[in-house]
Amino acid sequence: MHAPHSSEPIAPHTLEHPGTGPIEVWPVGNRVGESPAWHAGEQALYWIDVRGQQVLRLDPVHRQLTRWQLPEVVGAMAVWNDGSLRLALQQRIVDLDLHTGLLRTVCLLAAHEPPGNRLNDGKRSPSGRWFVVGSMDDRVDKQARGALYCVSDSGTVRQLHTGLVVANGIAWSPDARTLYFSDSFRGQVWQAAWNEAEGTMGEPRPFADLGEAEGRPDGAQVDGAGCYWSAGVSAGALNILAPDGTRQARIALPCRAPTMCTFGTANDLWVTSLVRPGWEPTALDGALFRLQVRR
């Protein structure tokens, strides 16, 4: 199976936003932008559009946008090896060869997942040995049927945790000894001891509660100081949590629903966003943003 790709020129515009200074807005038109990852070697940003069923790559210097069209919904992405990405599709993990567009199945998770679930959010572990991915109940009447999995490079699957509604917010502490994850539906973030050599985690313990007004915790990133940057998908903001779980700062954004952030070069911060069904489309919801931050 292949993922055909196409490229197009793209230009950002700059928006002055109170409290953050200039923000670059890249009009990529995502339905559900997610999983941004900066590729230092290419000086390019990769991410996905979950409902648009696409992988995207932005070369910000040459202002070129490339899209790979996928055969099904994609929940998560990680830059894997030179020229390849690891993707969580509906209920399977695949590798995408960016040169040929070939999709190679790594493993199937359908046997672990009930009907109506799909994979959602995932990250490559700090050493690159594991792909930790979560799942969610994709039905309107959501139940706590989601789980957290650890997938090895060869495709071995280990279930880490169950009882989640919408698994999200996967990230690691700088020393790789703590794994964070969230349930976006419940507004809860947990942390657990992580064994990078074995790909196992300890008993999760509560880290933070973030409600509707604060910003339910979607995708996340941890900075070099150990602060957890959580996309507040219900409040148009990023919540920056200190290592003890207290909110250290809040960054308001011009979109209604940011989904995840990642650090680029220097002080660049890239943020993806979504457009909810029934929303009147705007030039900002579903866009990609770049802003300057201190970290």
Automatic annotation (TrEMBL):
Give the record's keywords alphabetically: Metal-binding, Zinc
Q: Which residues form a coiled coil?
A: none
For the biological process aspect of GO, one term held by this record is: L-ascorbic acid biosynthetic process
Domain of life per record: Bacteria
InterPro entries in the record, alphabetically?
A: 6-blade_b-propeller_TolB-like, SGL, SMP-30
Residues that coordinate or bind substrate: R118, N120
Does Chaperone appear among the keywords? no
Q: What's a Gene Ontology MF term here? A: calcium ion binding
Active site, per annotation = D218 (proton donor/acceptor)
Ranges where the record places region Disordered: 1-21
The protein's matches in Pfam families, at most eight in alphabetical order, are given as: SGL
State how the cofactor is bound. Binds 1 divalent metal cation per subunit.
Residues reported in the UniProt entry to bind a divalent metal cation: E34, N168, D218
Domain SMP-30/Gluconolactonase/LRE-like region residue range list: 32-273
Q: Which cofactor does it need?
A: Zn(2+)
Similarity comment: family membership: Belongs to the SMP-30/CGR1 family.
Write down what this protein is called.
Sugar lactone lactonase YvrE
Provide the species name.
Acidovorax soli
